[in-house]
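Notes from hallway chat w/ T.B., transcribed later so I don't forget. T.B. wanted the structure written out for a chain they're using in a teaching module, and asked if we could keep both sequence and structure tokens in one place. Agreed to drop them here.
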Amino acid sequence: MRRTLLGLAAAFLVALVLVQVTGSGGDLDLDSVADDARAVIGDAAEDVASLDDGSGDGGSGDGGSGGSGASPDGSVDVTKVTRQLDGLTVKGKAPQTGYDRDEFDHWTDPDGNGCDARNDMLARDLSDEKVDDDGCTVLSGTYDVEPYTGEKNRAFERGSDDLAVSLDAEHVVALQNAWISGAHDWNDNRREKFANDPANLLMVDPGENRTKGAANAAEWLPPNKAFRCEYVATQIQVKAAYELAITQPEKDAMNRVLESC
């Protein structure tokens, strides 16, 4: 994008000089051309700066804002994920008829280690965690970087009424979104597997989790721009693994993010 903007500026300058030379019969006002050049380059530089600081179209947390605002960290194989995205079925949302969160038996023990999936995710995502005598229940710990907000060294305390030290176990592809994307046709075992799959689980800020709700990528993106590439890549990989569909606006939003990764 930076190269495109600056390249357009250069092309405009060449055209500008040719027009002025032709129109002046060769008597070119160099000072005027210089002023025009500074104006064009200045505009291009401002556009590049807006991309760098996130103040352009993708600067908000709204997935439907027209831009991604993603900050790539090199963790996403864009070619592979884009290929997976292109392989997903695109169609409208199915009706929510029959949806109930309890249709997905969650917080079971899919890996058979004796601990439920939520405590497994706390143990996975936190550092310096303190575990109860049962060997499973995570009582406290520290989140090095909470992914949705970008908050560093966030404390977790089980049972606290303070949301600032609480975490939600988030389904990156929400259960309701999965339902309207194909899970309404699944059997109970497949829905249980989906609801407890570590690939689709993440401990996150409760406020952001509830703001997102069942939104897809066209409707919501994490306010932490540095996580958007990984977030969208995870949704794509999960939907590909479970053969879930996407809507066209959802696919467009995902592509916008991946173009910035």
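Follow-up for T.B.: The longest strand covers residues 138-145. Might be a good example for the class.
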